[in-house]
Records
---
Amino acid sequence: MINGETKVFGIIGDPIEHTFSPVMHNAAFKKLDMNNIYVPFNVKAEELEDAISGAYALGIRGLNITIPHKTEVIKYLDYLDIAAGLIGAVNTIEFGKNGIVGHNTDGIGAVRAINEISSVKNKSIMILGAGGAARAIAFQILLSGAKNLIISNRTIEKASELRDDLIEKLEPDVQIIDLDHDNLKIKLKDTDILINTTPIGMYPHTNKKPLLTADMMHENMVVNDIVYNPLKTGLLNEAEKAGAKPISGVKMLIYQGVESFKIWSGAEPPVEIFKKAIMDHLHLEII
């Protein structure tokens, strides 16, 4: 029951209708008997600064940050933890007595999800996209020992910025290419792990054609789409046709959520609570 002692958490983004985060976190709060609630907030880009200062003023304890605010939100924070500072993007905010602190749990969540199928260490990896989530995942997979990385993005200048930042901070083997079909097809022949960080195929635009098709993939490839609504995107359907190993974005959602929960509460929720909450919500079996 919500009362004067209830602690409020939430997620901000635009759009926000697709989010499963409230389902996960509220299930964990209930299971652990915590007087907390987690709420989604649709926040436009021009409202971001007001939303952050307003949340702090209202005593909201923590927020997750999703598309398109993960990099822009840094302007309105007091501090960044080491990971968020290195990555240059934030997906978790902690409001405390000492101010507003930004964290990033996206990369950890993605690597943990992929590692269930195949270690990223010594692997050739391609990331589609160059936004906030791509930054987090790129840094984390390189820190986790990936052999090399290709960043493919519609805007080549944005991919170049990410590549240059990675090289400056970590000195890895990083290439960039555009989304030209022929270029992608050539590079994908030697790709072990493909990660889509673009919103293509995300609800409600589920009928939009995926960036890649089955004929561009191979059966030894691991394909991770971080879009989690729908559970099986067009890209993952194409991966299955190619005999590749698909990983739903719900896995990353679960593991980054667990890390955010720990930051806010100091408690580590059982992963199964998060899994069951989402699968029950979707009327599916536990993944």
Note: The chain has a mean pLDDT of 93.
---
Amino acid sequence: MAQHDPQTWFLDQLMKSTLFHQKVHEWGLLTVADAIEKVKGEQLTWSNLTELGISQKAWDKVVHRGIKPVTVFAHPQVLMEVPRATSYYRMLAMVSQKSMRNIGLPVERYETTDDTPDLATAEAMARRLNHIISSLVEADEEIDKREFAIWRGMAAGAQAQGSWQNLKGTAAEESVKNMVRARLKERGLLAGEKGERIDLHDGRIVVFGSEPDISFYRGERMQAAIEVKGGIDPAGVLERVGAALKSLARIREENPTAVTVLIVTSTSMTETASRDLAINRTVVTHWFTIEELLTNESSRYNLFDLLGI
């Protein structure tokens, strides 16, 4: 089996771990868990456990351990009132989104927006998930509250792994785009968001696309552009850098004052590639490696300053 050199292995794993970490926040897992913890479960109707898909044995085990039932078993009212609660109970049951689609209960809409299911859908989801959760609770001789967080974590990890497999070829681009999105939200700069376009309060527009991967506009004039070339394999380095230079050159021709940023992997920075960048300072005004942006806070702030965010 071929082995990666240490630097290549580090970058590959760093991007994967970064994606997993970003998904925790993107999916709002902690926010949803906190919201469910605050639900006054005693005010909900639990009188017909069978209708809710909850076994008496599982219910008794949870209650006798002093665990709030609402943190373990899905209730239709909670699914309808707490945004993204579907993801909490689905992951607790360790069921995938694809599996839910296969039984005619797709959940993506309720896990990526603040939309919540209607009563009939919420009841059907609760029954399906509670049947599985009840079986899992019954299978343990003793229930430990901490185990529920592990169950959810296992399901979240499996889902993130699927995202990683889908995005692996563009992991570097996604990492940088998520980094910029998070910064815009953190600074309260977002005025509106529609698809890959974000309107800022200062009148600028940010577009996440390709060639360039990220662009900042004021009116019709592009003020800043980022190209991310994240290939790990040293082969094809010059081709990747060359493609970026062509894209950024067009932008500088249209606006000679535009800030142009190239982000590459450290393994891409061969002697020849470094020389090409030095020669083309009029095309690429600044460049970073993906490693330093992911691991060095001062480098991230330098990038944010260049973008005016």
Note: The two ends are 45 Å apart (CA to CA).
